[in-house]
Structures are given as structure tokens and as C-alpha cells.
Amino acid sequence: MKGTVQYEVVDGVALLRIDNPPVNPLSAGVRTGIYESIDKLEADDTVIAAVLTGKGRFFIAGADISEFGGKIQGPGLPEVLRKLEFCSKPVVAAINGGALGGGLETALCCNYRIASSKAFVGLPEVDLGILPGAGGTQRLPRLTGPAEALKIMISGRHVSASKAFSLGIVDQISDNLLEDAIAFAKEKAKMTDQHPMVRNFNDKILEARQSDQVFQEARAFAAQKRTGQFAPEKIIQCVEAAVHIEDFDEGLQKERAYFTECFVHPQRTAMIHIFFGTRAAAKIADVPKDTPIRKIQKAGVIGSGTMGGGIAMCFANVGIPVHIIDQNEENLQQGLSVIESNYDQMVKRGRLKPAQKEQVFGLISSGLDYSALADADIIIEAVYENLDLKKKIFSQLDAVAKAGAILASNTSALDLDAIAAATNRPESVVGTHFFSPANIMRLLEIVRGKESSHETMATAMALGKKLKKVPVVSLNAPGFIGNRMLAGYTTQANMLVLEGALPHQVDQALEKFGMRMGPFRMMDLVGLDLGWRARKLAGQSTPIYAKISHELCEQGRFGQKNGKGYYNYEQGSRAPKPAPENEALYQQVSAEHGFARRIISDTEIVERCILSLVNIGADILAEGVGQRASDLDVVYINGYGFPIWRGGPMHHANTIGLANVVSKLKEYRQLTGDNSFTPSKLLVKLAKEDSKLE
Ligand code: 3HC
Q: 10 Å Cβ neighbour count for 617?
């Protein structure tokens, strides 16, 4: 059984230390250890109290997620927590680090809670498609009141020790944790034999019976932050039970029943797939775990435009000084003023204190001279997409950067190996493809060049994590992972409009499926004129799928930037309004290119767009450009607004069955004559084997 609990008696107090590295989940060995330790201390007359703590940086990170769906060994968590809660001697939780999910629920079954100032607590089960199922929904509202408890459970956020103290979740903060907890336990044991149990705290519950407003607010919050998710409503129902049911144990039973509903729901499988997928994505199969990682203490960024500025903010936000270079003072001043106004916005919204802004913004310096980057550990180039320009910059950087410094390109489209060849250190060149806005979007594609060394790759992945991004590796291939898949998706969206759908119908169908933003709203946001201008500049003809967008641009409809594109926008607003004046143009372009417009169902819209993602994704896997199917899912969820509760496009394909995927693709090839629907060889093979994308 995984994990143990070390038992030691210190000065008449049993000290129980959970030992299950790296994060102390409640695996079978830990549950058994707690259970048996309680028996042991109950039987020992010399022990008057107990302290429960964790070894390492976590108290307990929750139930062991890897055990979910398997056969349960040892006692179940509810049984263990009941034993702990009804221990006849006082138990103090000494929360030394993170206490999450079942970890906080364990602490809530102790009589007292003392936390170190570095500790944090939370009930993040919602991120896994479940709810706190070991009493958290019944106990937390008794301490904080239902409104705060609902916010914590629906957001899944971590709560700092000081905040937890102010909310009444912990009784004390101490930086001399174990010593203080032992002394406190002894004192309480000597003082009384009536120790508090959270189940008996009813004041905040009785108060909440007066009005249902807190539940209405929670439902509005869930609808906004957790659209389409099943668990949040069940969490709310659990808290309603906590408030309205007199008998605590009956409330616990309700929680169990709702927990089971979440547990068997497909969203749970999808979201846990993403939990493990995100962690798997951070690993590169052939790069050993012990590969040395270079220290990144100073960064450089070339280019102070939208991307460069956002990337610089990512470094400053985690305390790494960063120097930005641009070709003239005017660009630099413009770039810096955008960065500063982003920070000002954060201060305005209360996400940053003014002093913190000064400190973070103070980490960003700028200049025109490359020699200022001589001591940088990594330099990220973020200029516009022009191979010759990038090669020139890399050759200049190679000359000034110190030995061992990593040179990275933010290119989203160009050949990284060609860029690396302009240097004498191709082994230290890597792609770091950030997504716009770079300071906000979590996805970071780490592009592996032919010669990128293990050390460079390991360092780039570790840096991604340090910058609070979700790094995913792609080989150096056109479009890498995300944009290559996106091309198939947007092509289908465009073709559907040529064939008879309207942009808002396509958007609504895909948003109903769960996409954060429909493709036409997205295209309006990015700007329709980008492709149009690029093609004009290169003297290229317009591909069939872009004919409508081309005509819109010819009419001066560029998207949100000038208030009209596929939709209309009122000044200063990003809300799309219908643009019926475009419909004649859609009909005209369809007719010109031989399309007899027809009524298209929402099902066809969703299937054609989503299965295009899947089909291209399968090619990406077959070519080895992406390491695993879950990497592609992680890319789509973190970079392209795919609903997490569907587990990403590849998981979605596995869920509907690959034989169905292949037959649908063939059906659409037949209907449209479009060969891009020819099923990927990998899909055909896996469907035949009744297997899955992995
Ligand atoms: N169970 C099993 N394994 C876990 C785990 C858990 N609860 N939490 C983390 N791990 C594993 C990770 O998979 C990873 O394994 P790997 O090294 O083999 O990839 C390892 O621990 C380290 O995790 P991270 O790489 O994520 O480390 P970080 O330091 O970045 O983050 C963390 C640590 C904040 C604990 C993060 O892992 C996390 O958020 N974990 C999930 C916490 C959670 O959701 N708890 C609730 C569980 S459900 C529950 O308790 C149900 C109950 O209500 C009945």
C-alpha cells in the first residue's frame, strides 16, 4: 500500500506524520496509517492528545486521484475521517503546507487547526469534475458561512493561511508549527475534555436559512465561471443540504449521493484525464528526469510589441529581471507604456497592490543595444514573422550572449532549424511559442529543433512551469500542434458559411458544444485583414475557404478593430451584434463559386469542425510531432478555449469511439467532396483494432 503515517510520542502527545511524497495524498497506506494510529493512541493511557501533520511541503494534497475507479484497499476515507473526528482525545491538525481537497477535509475533522504562514488550503475537487466528498461541503460552510464556502468550492482556488485564519478555517498561525501545535494540544487536553467539532457549529448555518440569495449568487457565479460543468450545481445542492437539513449525518449522506453522481459522470473522466495529461505533457519521453536544468536569473526579450511585452511581463511577474530590446526608442516607449497600463489595470481590479506594481514593473528594463543582454540566461525573440530578420537577430544574439545562454524564438510558423542554423549554438536554440495575450494565456508550446539539446529542452520546460504556463512539446513542423489543428477547424467553419450556414449559427453551435468563443467571433477578434494583407503582399491568390473573408475586407470590414467584420460592434464594445447586411454578400460569393446554399444542421457544424481537429491531430501523432494524444488535448484546452469538461478533442474522439469518428469523416468526405476528411491512417488503424488515441 502506498504511503505511511509515522507515529511518535512527544511529551505525552502522539505526533502523526503523513509520509507519501511528493504531495502526501491519502493513498491506501496513509488512510490505514491514520486509522491504526488513532487506535494506537486511544489504547495508550500515557498519550493525552494528538497532532497530525505532513512531511515535506504538503499537509495532504487530497484523495489519491490515481486510485479513482480502481479497487479500494484498506479503509475508505469516510470511515477514517469518522474515526478521527470521534477520537476521544483532542487532535490538532498542524497544517505545514498545502491542505487540499480530502486534505482540508481531514483537517476539518480535527478539533483544532494551526497553520504555518506558508500553508494554504482549498477544495479544488471541482477541477476534477467532482465535489468535496469527505464532508467538506457540510463542514466548511459551518466555519466560513455558505457564501465564502461556495466561492472556495466553485472556484477551486487556493486560500492562503492568513486568509484562512480570517475566514475562521484555521484557529492559529504559527511559524514554530510542531512545537506550538504540541504545546497547544497538551494545554487543551489538560484544560477540558469538551473539544470543538466542526459538525456542531451551527450559527452560520442558522443565519443562512433566512435567505436564498447566497445560492442564487452561487448559481450565477457557476454559470459564468464554470459554463457547462456538472459538478458546481451539485456542490450548491450539497450546501443547500448543509443549510436546510437539521441532522448533520443526513447532510453527509446527501453529499455522498451527489458525489457518486459526479463520480460516474463522463465529465469526471474527462477532467481527470486533463489533470494527468497536464502533468504528462511536462515530461519529454527521451529526456532523462535527472537532466541538468540551467538557472534562469535574467532574461532578455527582442521586440516590444504585443507579444514581446506580454512575454516580458511573464518573467517580471515571477521575479525574474528582464531586459527588452527594440530597434528604436519610440517602439520601446510605446511597448513599455502598454505594459505599464496592463499593470495599472491589474491594480485597478485589485489583483495587484500599487507597491507590488512598482516592484514588478521595476524588474523590466529596456534599451536599444544588444550588448545589454550579455549576462542574460535566456533571450526570447518576439519580432514579426520574417525568416531573414529572425536569422539576422539570432546571429547577432549568438555573438553577444554568454556561453550556455538559451536563445529562443516565439515564432508561430517559421522553421526553427533554419533560425538555429544562423547561430553557432543550435543545441541551445528552442522555440517558445506563447499565445496572445502572453501574460494571460496559459499554453506554451515548446518547439524542439533538430539539434535542441536535452538540457535546453529540460530548462525550457522547467522555465514554462516557473512562468506559470502549461508547457507542451512540439517537434519543429509547420504550425506545430495548435495552429496546424486550428487551420482545419477554421477552414471547415468558413466552408460551412459558403455552403449555406450563417456565421452566428456556426458560432452558436460550437459555443453550445462548449467552445469558449465561436470561430467567427475569434476571426473578428484577431482581424480579418491579416491574411488578406499577407496574401496581397505575397501576390498569392485567395483559397476557396477565404473567399468570403476576402470580400469582407474589400468592403473595409476588418473585424473588431474597425467595428465591423462578420458582426457589427458598437464603439468601445466587444459584444458582437448581427450584421444582416453581410448576407447578400455570402449569397453572392457562394453563387460565384458554385455552391447551392442549403440548410445546415448544428450537428453537422459541430462534427465537421471538431472532427477536423481530431483528424489532423491523429496525423500529428502519427508523425511524432506531438508526443501523446493528451498533449494535444492540453494544447486545445489551454490555448484554444476547448471545454475542459470534454477532455480535449482527442479524448472526445475516444469517447465517441474511433470507428464512429472514421465513419463520420467518410460521410463528410462523400457529402462535400473535400479530401481533408479522408481519415488519418492512424485513426483507421486504431478504429480497426478497437483501440484509442494515446
Ligand atoms: N493524488 C495523486 N497524485 C497526485 C495528487 C493527488 N491528489 N496531487 C498531485 N499528485 C501527483 C501528480 O500527479 C504528480 O505526479 P508525477 O510527478 O508522477 O507527475 C506529483 O504528485 C506532483 O504534482 P505536481 O506536478 O502537480 O506538483 P505541483 O507542486 O506543481 O502541484 C498540487 C502540487 C498543488 C498538489 C497539484 O498537484 C494539485 O493541484 N493536485 C490536485 C489536488 C486536488 O485536486 N486534490 C483533491 C483530490 S480529490 C479529493 O480529495 C476527493 C475528496 O473530496 C473525497
A: 30
